[in-house]
Amino acid sequence: MDHREHDHLDPNHRLHQNLIGGLGNAGIMAGYAWDIVMGMTNRLRASGALLALGVIPHLLTGCSGTSIVEPGFNPKTAAAQAMDLYDTNRDGAIDTAELVNAASLRAVLPKADTDGDGRLTQAELATRFGTYRAGELLVTTFPCSITLDGQPLVGADVQLIPEPFMGDAYEVASATTSTGGQAVLSAPSVTARGFSGVFCGVYRVEISSKNGAGEETIPANYNSASELGQEIAPDREDVERGVVLALERPKARKKPGRKNE
Ligand SMILES: [Ca+2]
Ligand SMILES: [Ca+2]
Question: Is the pTM higher than 0.85?
Answer without folding.
Answer: no
